[in-house]
Amino acid sequence: MWRRQFRYREAGLTALLAASLWSSRASAQACCAGSGALTPGRLTLHDTALVGVSLRASDAYGSVDLHGHYVSSSPGAREYDFEQDLFGSVRFLDHGQVALLVPFVESWRTTPSTGSEFGGGIGDINLSARWDFLLAGQSKKIPGIGLLAGITLPTGTPPESAKKPLASDATGIGAYQGNLGLAVEQAFGPWLINLSGIMAQRTARDVNGVHGKLAPQFTALGAIGYAFENEATAAFVASYAFEGSATVNGKEAPNSGRRLLRLSAAGSYPFTDNLRLQGSIFVDPPVFRIDQNQITTIGIVLTMIHAWF
Predict the structure, then answer these.
(1) What confidence tier does 113 reach under pLDDT thresholds 50, 70, 90?
(2) Which residues face 68 on adjacent strands?
(3) Theoretical Cys-Cys bridge with 120: which of 106, 229, 265, 266, CB 3.0 to 4.6 Å?
(4) Interatomic CA distance for residues 62 and 125, integer angstroms
(5) How confident is residue 190, by pLDDT bands cut at 50, 70 and 90?
(6) Which residue has the higher pLDDT, 243 or 289?
(7) What is the mean pLDDT of the chain?
């Protein structure tokens, strides 16, 4: 269940990138794109506030073991995950913005021995902020630079508190998570290139008398996007998250580190000046020795946003 922490930085990432590519019809430039990694529903250059809803569905089609070998799901064993996110963002002091995301998470799981079950509930709430020292395209020589920060609160149900046999009602990681990152991006006409780095630190946990703590997690992200003259956008994103081995009762747990590569493609379309639709697909390709100790998934994200100027 620790894999749920990847949701906010990667699952809907490309849809949020496509939204930030959206700009005024007068320029049709990628003037205000960004990662959206820690700021769900990032405000565009002309937005002062927004609210939105995001719907996500994914299929856990396999896993990668500690040696980086891919293993497909066993016959008769399946997992489908669903999520609905409510979020809002508001601008402050021109260069800053803060956001709140409230997720609702559900899982459907089945095994040959235990049968099927469905469960869910509220997930871990995310608070985030972004400060842009310089916007992409403002200078031809210096790229846009944004500082990212956020915290995820353990408001969901952790795995050890799940009531159902397959823990389908577990909706959170059971720990506080702090994030700090830096986004560098530059616009070249209608094109945008973004490079971001994010570090996450989780608090220690005590479960059934066992004291455990995950190592810091790092996420590297690269993205390229294009803004069409009709204000529609398209984007491609590659992200790679990795962390070292966890500690259990003060000792390192060998081969417990985790790595995950995710590829995403997205697009957005503005119905009006205030209302826009975003969509993305993502996949975790099981590349040998690139991934480690992770569930591999494929999924889709649909997002509707209403913004105010």
Answers:
(1) confident
(2) none
(3) 106
(4) 27
(5) confident
(6) 243
(7) 84
pLDDT of residue 18: 43
- Residue 166 region, left (φ>0) first, then alpha (ψ -120 to 50), else beta? alpha
Task: Measure the CA dihedral 40/224/263/294, to 10°.
Answer: -60
Let me know: does 85 contact 107? Beta carbons within 8 Å.
no
Which residues are CB-contacts of 190 (< 8 A; sequence separation ≥ 6)? 28, 29, 30, 226, 227, 228, 229
In this predicted structure, what is the pLDDT of residue 112?
87
User: What is the Cα–Cα distance from 142 to 134, expressed in whole angstroms?
Assistant: 8
**Phi and psi at residue 13, to the nearest 5°:** -60, -45
CA angle 38–125–99, rounded 5-degree value: 45
pLDDT at position 40 over 70: no
Better-predicted residue by pLDDT, 34 or 280: 280
pTM of the model: 0.86
CA distance 285 to 262: 7
Residues in Cβ contact with 151 at an 8 Å cutoff, skipping those fewer than 6 apart: 126, 127, 128, 176, 177, 178, 179
**Residues 199-207: contacts with CB within 8 Å, 24+ apart?**
200/5, 200/9, 201/177, 202/5, 202/173, 202/175, 202/176, 202/177, 203/175, 203/176, 203/177, 204/175, 205/158, 205/174, 205/175, 207/158, 207/160, 207/174
